[in-house]
């Protein structure tokens, strides 16, 4: 038996152990659950260690002295466990401000102008069904926008638009939830197909 | 007080069936389909065709950057992603795969090994036609860094080969050297990061492959920011059909079809039986 066969057998056993939850919570399921969680945590530690070693420590000793700054900031993240927990604020401030600056720079174009452009749909095309669909989308879009107008006292017309917006959002949230439920099925199915793959690998040697 | 079993009518008995029996029937049905794939008919949607056409229309020699952020514990997207990588390998284009998730490199290597046909992988040379990079922490900061200068983020590829030793990377330095970006992720926040960095900052055309749950969060960006969407796991089988491949997605499609069909029938049947039971209870029959 080679290493690949052994991994396939472990994969099959773990998959069957996880599926045993369908019957009821049992020790075999918990063993599989703890094995997976432990393996993931171990994997993260190894990946993190490797990245710090290769991406920061090695270049630093290779002459790139500026790498000492992120290395010190990284070490400061652990200060929360020490007698100087306030030190953790500095690396968090650097990380947050860098991320925010990069995000904000392009957020206006990507998430406001881009989305607004995507909402401006043509309504006079050749395909009548597409035009109707676009008109419907525009009505829902305007209704949803109207829902979030808080600065004007609602009039009869605005209330009608708000009602449309509420319905549009309820529909969207419902679709989102059903998609997430669909996710559960697809993940389970994908695990079954992986199980099949393990078995086929084992059979074909 | 529970009603003794012998006094229950048929509809009540059906309603009181242990749910584990229903799950067991579903599992057996799926297992049969798993061993003997049915090959259910596939309708290729306009969205999938658009995605395929975008790759098809790329000029020879174009370089594509793919950000694969699929987690190893979420294998549902593997078949879809495998089909897209297979398509990239079939075209006279080059591609670079980067990862913002720890498990991403493992997923890409698995896809190239198990999900893309071996003869398709053999058509191209690693390092010359495609390169796989490892995990880069920092998400948006890392992606922004890659697009400014990929060498600031990656010194080596996933196998430890220095970037400058890879023939493909001699001409690839920053976002100007890419002609297309493909974002793959099973979390909706990755879509926003992709749009901000690939589209707004780097001005690259972006194609997105979200999972089924991520589709509602991706669609609003189409078509202004995202040029085409491959809508999750069901799109995998469509893409395989477009390529003329019969891979894992076909089996997944069979199982999903059976699963949804079974659940639908169970809901309808359960409601009919519930209605019959209420009707018979009103008439005084137990």
Q: What is the radius of gyration of chain A?
A: 27 Å
Approximate strand percentage of chain B: 5-15%
| Biggest sheet record of chain A | none
Task: Give the averaged pLDDT of chain B, no decimals.
Answer: 86
User: Order of helices and strands of chain B, N to C?
Assistant: HHHEHEHHEHHEHEHEHH
What general form of chain A does the structure show? Answer: extended
Roughly how many Å is the radius of gyration of chain B? 24 Å
Number of strands of chain A: 0
Task: Give an overview in words.
The complex is a heterodimer of chains A (205) and B (286). Chain A has helices spanning 3-19, 27-61, 68-76, 89-119, 128-147, 156-204. With 205 residues, chain A is an all-alpha fold. In chain A, helix 1 packs across helix 2 (27-61), helix 1 (3-19) packs across helix 6 and helix 5 (128-147) crosses helix 6 (156-204). The longest helix of chain A is centred in the last third of the chain and has 49 residues, at 156-204. Chain B starts with 9 loop residues before the first helix and ends with a helix. The mean pLDDT of chain B is 86. The interface between A and B is large, with 50 and 58 residues.
Secondary-structure map with pairings?
The complex is a heterodimer of chains A (205) and B (286).
Chain A: H1 3-19, H2 27-61, H3 68-76, H4 89-119, H5 128-147, H6 156-204
Chain B: H1 10-15, H2 19-35, H3 46-56, E1 63-69, H4 78-90, E2 94-99, H5 104-115, H6 118-121, E3 130-135, H7 140-148, H8 150-153, E4 180-185, H9 188-201, E5 206-210, H10 215-218, E6 226-229, H11 234-243, H12 248-282
Parallel strand pairs in B: 1-2, 1-4, 2-3, 4-5, 5-6
Helix pairs in contact in B: 2-12, 4-5, 4-11, 7-9, 11-12
């Amino acid at each position: 038996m080679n290493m690949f066969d052994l991994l396939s057998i472990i994969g099959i056993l773990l998959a069957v152990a996880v599926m045993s939850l369908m019957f009821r919570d049992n020790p075999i399921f918990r063993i599989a659950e703890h094995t997976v969680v432990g393996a993931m945590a171990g994997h993260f530690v190894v990946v993190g260690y490797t990245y710090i070693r290769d991406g920061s420590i090695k270049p630093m000793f290779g002459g790139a002295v500026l790498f000492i700054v992120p290395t010190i900031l990284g070490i400061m993240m652990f200060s929360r466990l020490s007698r100087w927990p306030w030190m953790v604020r500095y690396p968090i401030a650097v990380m947050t401000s860098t991320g925010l600056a990069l995000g904000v720079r392009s957020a206006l174009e990507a998430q406001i102008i881009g989305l607004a452009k995507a909402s401006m749909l043509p309504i006079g095309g050749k395909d009548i069904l597409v035009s109707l669909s676009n008109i419907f989308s525009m009505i829902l879009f305007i209704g949803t926008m109207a829902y979030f107008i808080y600065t004007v006292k609602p009039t009869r017309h605005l209330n009608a638009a708000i009602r449309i917006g509420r319905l549009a959002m309820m529909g969207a949230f419902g679709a989102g939830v059903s998609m997430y439920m669909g996710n559960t099925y697809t993940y389970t199915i994908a695990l079954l197909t992986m199980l099949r793959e393990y078995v086929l690998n084992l059979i074909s040697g | 007080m529970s009603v003794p079993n012998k006094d229950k009518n048929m509809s009540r008995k059906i309603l009181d069936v242990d749910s584990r029996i229903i799950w067991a029937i579903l599992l057996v049905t799926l297992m049969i389909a798993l061993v003997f794939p049915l090959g259910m008919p596939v309708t290729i949607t306009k969205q999938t065709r658009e995605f395929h056409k975008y790759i098809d229309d790329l000029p020879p020699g174009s370089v594509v950057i793919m950000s694969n952020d699929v987690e190893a514990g979420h294998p549902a997207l593997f078949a879809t992603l495998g089909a897209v990588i297979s398509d990239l390998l079939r075209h006279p284009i080059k591609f670079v795969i980067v990862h913002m998730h720890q498990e991403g490199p493992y997923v890409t290597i698995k896809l190239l090994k198990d999900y893309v046909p071996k003869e398709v992988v053999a058509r191209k040379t690693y390092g010359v036609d495609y390169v796989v990079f490892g995990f880069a922490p920092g998400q948006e900061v890392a992606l922004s860094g890659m697009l400014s200068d990929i060498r600031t983020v990656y010194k080596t590829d996933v196998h430890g080969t220095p970037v400058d030793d890879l023939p493909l990377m001699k001409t690839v330095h920053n976002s100007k050297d890419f002609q297309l970006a493909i974002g793959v992720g099973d979390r909706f926040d990755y879509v926003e990061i992709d749009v901000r960095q690939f589209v707004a900052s780097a001005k690259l055309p972006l194609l997105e492959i979200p999972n089924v749950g991520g589709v509602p969060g991706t669609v609003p960006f189409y078509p202004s920011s995202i040029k085409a969407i491959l809508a999750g796991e069901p799109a995998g089988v469509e893409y395989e059909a477009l390529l003329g491949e019969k891979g894992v997605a076909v089996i997944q499609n069979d199982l999903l079809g059976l699963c949804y069909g079974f659940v639908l029938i169970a809901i309808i049947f359960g409601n009919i039986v519930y209605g019959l039971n209420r009707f018979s209870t009103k008439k005084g029959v137990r």
